[in-house]
Amino acid sequence: MKNFNLSNCELTHSEGVFTLKNINTTIGFVRFNEHGEIEYIFVNPIFRKKGLAKKLLTLVKEKTKKKLVFQKPISPLGSKLLKSLNKNA
Q1: What pTM value is reported for the model?
Q2: Are 54 and 30 in contact, with CB atoms under 8 Å apart?
Q3: Roughly what angle, to the nearest 10 degrees, separates helices 52-64 and 76-88?
Q4: CATH superfamily name and code, 6-88
Q5: pLDDT, the chain, mean
Q6: pLDDT digits (tens, 9 = 90+) for 33-47
Q7: Residues 6 or more apart from 21 whose CB is under 8 A from it?
């Protein structure tokens, strides 16, 4: 996993959403509820394979203080991410 420099990025938090942006685009976001259920996660294709999804999920876990629960993925990439996370758990 490549390290990604977050110093040029802005992290915002609104009700149930963490969003990571730089000056040009949204890099990624995660939508969740207070029970630690991940409703949706997205990382811009240009920024994938840099560990950003895991960083976003860590923020959710720290915020909710709950074990993360994933809703059924709606895309093949979501299924792939979930398998990867389960394998590394």
Answers
A1: 0.78
A2: no
A3: 70
A4: Gcn5-related N-acetyltransferase (GNAT) (3.40.630.30)
A5: 85
A6: 999 999 889 999 999
A7: 9, 10, 12, 27
